[in-house]
Amino acid sequence: MQASDLENLFPKAADIPKEFDLTQPIEQREYLVNGEMRKWNGKTQDVWSPIYVQTANGYEQKRIGSYPITDATDAMEVLYAGVKAYSNGRGEWPSMSVSQRIECVEKFTQKMIQKRDEVVKLLMWEIGKSLGDSQKEFDRTVQYIYDTIGALKDIDRTSSTFLIEEGIIGQVRRSPLGVVLCMGPFNYPLNETFTTLIPALIMGNTVLFKPPKHGTLLHYPLLEAFKDSFPAGVINTLYGRGNSIIPQLMESGKIDVLTLIGSSKVADKLKKMHPKVNRLRAILGLDAKNAAIVTESAQLDVAINECLLGSLSFNGQRCTAVKIIFVHKSLAEAFNKGLAEKIEALKIGMMWEPGVQITPLPEPNKPAYLKELIEDAKLHGAKVINKHGGENFKSLFFPAMLYPVNNKMKVWHEEQFGPVVPVVPFEDISTPIDYIHESSHGQQVAIFGTDVNQISALIDETVNQVSRVNINAQCQRGPDSFPFTGRKDSAEGTLSVTAALRSFSIRTVVATKANQLNKDLVNQIVENQQSNFLSTRFIL
After folding, report:
1. What is the three-state SS of 109-161?
2. What pTM was estimated for this model as a whole?
3. What does the pLDDT read at residue 539?
4. Span 72-285 CATH architecture
5. Which end of the chain has fewer beta carbons closer than 10 Å to its terminal beta carbon, N or C?
């Protein structure tokens, strides 16, 4: 495959299937604040797809629309809408019963489902995600919302009882934390964002939501659904450049919860801007450099297939991707040959093509960065061992498998977040173990092997370094009922269906001495259903 072959993968306008084409750009000129769709007449940001179209003038990048670029003053107005709606916990939303909040989220979800085709199409065009993966992301997000509702019902049912200990009657429930600043990632701009936004909302917090730089327009079809489903000020949108609008929000001290899926450096800076860091709850999904360890007892076909999926699903643009592979020398030749062949067979092309596996990269500077990693690795003794590895044209980049990789190379240390697969040979198992111990990342590891004694030892070596150990399987997030977190610089807080609800709330106790006067008082409150918090109502 030469550059010319990659060039020809980009379509002519007439070749784009009508059902997937964006015939008209989406010019967003409004945003949601304080329960209204606020008209915008100021600066805007053009949105360019990673797709280039063949024209008589050459290859032209497809412009798919634009969205508002607000400034710090506009952002502060959005903040105060959220602050007002929360009203120190006395607002309509945080004061609602759990069942009432669930009804609002269910209403939103039904409206969201009606926008499926629009959101899926924008996922494809904005970030280059394949049709199948875009549909899967939308459907998984809807299922996550329903699972969240189910988990909250379980929590609430458990909380609808009284404890009597040492002469004290108490009821323990969960209450909201306040105003949440929610910022999601470009690679899963819908799903990863909603895995924080939805639990934050349903627990009674108010939310300021800033869409990611790549993956902004796809949220536009959902703004009306948010407006119609929640009280004014409960969900508000922020648009603009993060470095222009976020610092003032943090410095105000009015943000109670920061939830960010992105860079640890950015997270550190934002937290330090808050005047009272001890009051700031942070739920963060950050950097990761997940390793795979292929031991001498590994089943080669399993290791190859799982490492292929782990390293190159959605072009390797996943925080849970396998980003470095350690292979025992006795298997290295066979492993490299098998994985290289699998990579060479991957279908590269446009998002709507059936079976496509490698698609255009949405970050404009990513191909140049990946080239830099490859050249640096070559300087220090590595080779690209798969055909066409590293060839690129515009936003298309064919995956490159590098071998042998060592600690002098940038790709050993840096999270590539793209289709470059570094492979490290080892003889002593201490080599991959030391790598994991010394790494500043601590999300996951994938271990391949069949030797019971060795696998047992590796489990015990790694469970205190990472937060998920995968045996004969790629690194991944799901199922959503499993805890999702990381150690070191990889995460703060835990996300899963149930854990996220806990992350965005705090246990609160109403307690009284168990004398007759207090018993009568509590019984009367409960029987007359006079409190949304102190209650034995059972949500089915």
Report:
1. HHHHHCCHHHHHHHHHHHHCCCHHHHHHHHHHHHHHHHHHHHHHHHHHHHHCC
2. 0.96
3. 87
4. 3-Layer(aba) Sandwich (3.40)
5. C
